[in-house]
Amino acid sequence: MAEVILHNVTKSYGPQTALSGVSMTIADGAFVVLLGPTGAGKTTTLRMVSGLDTPDQGDISINGQSTKGLTPAQRNVAMVFQQYSLYPHLTVRENMEFPLKSPLLRTPRAEITRKVAEVAEILQISHKLDNKATALSGGEMQRVSIGRALVRNPAVYLMDEPLSSLDAKLRADLRVELKNIQSNLGATFLYVTHDQIEAMTMATHVGVLDHGKLVQFGTPREIYEQPVSIYAAGRLGQPHINILPADLFGPAPSNATHIGLRPEHIQQGEGQDALVKRIEHLGDQTRLHLSFKNHDLTTVTDAHTALRAGDILRIQPQRPFYFDANGTRI
Amino acid sequence: MSYSITEPSNRQKWIAGGLVIAYAILTLLPLAWIIATGFKTPADAIAYPPKVLFTPSLEGYVNLFTSRSRVTPEDLAALGPPTTWYDEIVRQYGMVITGASRYGERFLNSVIIGFGSTFLSVFLGTIAAYAFSRFKVPLKDDLLFFILSTRMMPPIAVAIPIFLMYRQLGLSDTHLGMILLYTAVNLSLSVWLLKGFIDEIPIEYEEAALIDGYTRFQAFYKVVLPQAATGIASTAIFCLIFAWNEYAFAVLLTSGTAQTAPPFIPTIIGAGGKDWPAVAAGATLFLLPIMVFTILLRKHLLRGITFGAVRK
User: Fold this and answer.
1) pLDDT value at residue B311
2) A165, A178, A195, A179: which is closest to A123 by C-alpha?
3) Predicted confidence band at A82 (pLDDT cuts at 50, 70, 90)?
4) pLDDT band per the 50, 70, 90 thresholds, residue A253
5) pTM for the predicted model, two decimal places
6) Residue A59's pLDDT is what?
């Protein structure tokens, strides 16, 4: 296990800047989740660390050692690809044994068998071990792909949306398993996801990427409670944060142009009138879609609310974020 | 034209089956004729109307593998009774076997040159195709076009320069010379075919192997090659068929040591009358290796030819 430091990493593909000046310290044993929409540079960051691509500028060090000129094998990293990339001519077992048999590890036979059986158990694919890799469902392929990484004990695990094609129950199971493995091993993880729950529950740190720039890096709570910008605030939160004109509810700081309100930061029963447009009962909570001075906003309320569409509800902001014209938080 | 997704009717199946069988008979007829002629006597072989039913004879094969000379009836009688079955066949015509013919060594030459050049074409082709497919090669498109352009004229157009070059270099009538020549002709086909196959293999597999602790060459060997097997097999068949059947250069550049079977088979006719059964026997045996090779690799060949269309 190791500490990974990115220092001022920049990468372009032709005219497209994929990463610009990204610096980040992934502490030994940290679970860092990268957030950002498609094209923000999440996958590129993983590829830089893995050595499949090399930075145009800047340096990446693993365990205090610069990775300049090192091949992926020499870096000793494990990666779970978004497209699974299972070796189609091999069985599930052979796929999972593949890294252990590499010239890098040269694991003894008994150890290979033990390790593969153990990881297959965790990933609930023991009964599929002798299937051809191509004869699996998408979710099974994804688990084999995770398994191929977990059999190893690398400097850092790189995972690119590893749980994206699993059904909800399995995803929840594996989320817990991955987190357990990470805490038990003290392993360092760099993890890309779109899933808010994965980010909030698994991460020790979250990095928010925007067009190749790292805009915020901190604990999930920090990102959630102290976002540096509208963009960072929008990465986390379900339902999405409400962004409204700054003076909608009354006086605002002079340079503020927008107010940001998380759905749970709208106090109900006091303040000004809003119209309830639609109600979504989700079971454990209820979402209210409101219209307030011709602006739509979303909030959450008690699961057993008596409110109905067309009702009038008084609301006022509670712990608002204010942002200036550039989207930066004040 | 629209395609029906319903099951074809029985009548349609019969018609389709009948057409396929008719076409198969049409294409296999010359083959059947050659094989049958090989087992006829010289008299049966030229009989008119052609004999469909005949008493099989190994005369053609005996004549193919032996050289014989005519002796007087007195000398023949002095030799005593024939000791082997093939002696007996030959003596009916007042001849004795004087030794083995050169067919065996010509056949062996064909095997060495055919398989040698096929191996070399596919080996070099795979490596080149991998490089063109995966690496940033300067002037890649121009180089690929240049490689293809060697196919744009019939190879025989350069026969005379090659003849002169080979004489100067001492490559005339050598196995190495013929292997190099057929490799040069086949290489463009092999690079282009294999590049197509390797392009189809997603690069992510190799990236996964690199991460899994393998070097690039090991990734190529363990991950790319097994998946390119289909393409390699079908490319090998195409190369082998060309090298095996090639006639013009073989006539021009070989005479003694490295002569292949195609230029040799017609020379059998001259040796002692029109010996069609021996020619047919030589052609039949010459067909066998490629038939066996193709049958062994037929699954790959079928998938290879329809590659891209049926791949899941």
Assistant:
1) 34
2) A178
3) confident
4) confident
5) 0.80
6) 92
Q: Which of the following CATH numbers is that of domain A4-234: 4.10.320.10, 3.40.50.300, 3.30.930.10, 3.40.1190.10?
A: 3.40.50.300
Q: Which two tokens stand for residue B201?
A: 């293999």
- Which of A78, A89, A103 comes nearest B218 by C-beta? A103
Question: Which chain A residue's Cα is nearest to B212?
Answer: A99
Tell me what the pLDDT averaged over chain A comes to: 89
Q: Which B positions 221-250 lie with beta carbon below 8 A of chain A?
A: 223, 226-227
Helices (H), chain A: 42-50, 72-75, 92-97, 109-122, 138-150, 168-185, 196-202, 220-225, 230-235
pLDDT digits (tens, 9 = 90+) for B95-148: 888 888 889 999 999 999 999 999 999 999 999 999 999 998 899 999 999 988
Contact of B150 with chain A, judged by CB distance below 8 Å, is answered with no
Contact A81 B214 (CB under 8 A): no
**Domain A266-323 carries which CATH code?**
2.40.50.140
pLDDT at B196 over 70: yes
Looking at chain B, which residue has its C-alpha nearest residue A81? B208
Domain ranges of chain A: 4-234, 266-323
Instruction: List pLDDT tens digits, range A188-243.
Output: 999 998 888 888 889 999 999 999 999 999 999 999 999 999 999 988 888 889 99
Residue with tokens 């992510």: B204
Residues of A in contact with B211 (CB under 8 A): 50, 52, 72-73, 77-79, 99
Residues of B in contact with A105 (CB under 8 A): 213
Q: Which of B237, B295, B253, B223 is nearest to B118 (CA)?
A: B237
Which positions in chain A touch B227 (Cβ < 8 Å)? 88-89
Candidates A71, A105, A160: best to mutate against B (most CBs of B within 10 A) is A71
Measured between beta carbons, the chain B residues lying within 8 angstroms of A107 are none
Domain B104-305 fold: MetI-like fold (1.10.3720)
Give A264's DSSP letter.
G
pLDDT of residue B29: 93
What residue spans define the domains of chain B? Answer: 42-101, 104-305
- Quote the minimal CA–CA distance from A127 to chain B in Å: 24
Comparing CA positions, the residue from A91, A198, A76, A189 lying closest to residue A141 is A91
Q: In which band, very low, low, confident or very high, does the pLDDT at B310 lie, cut at 50, 70 and 90?
A: very low
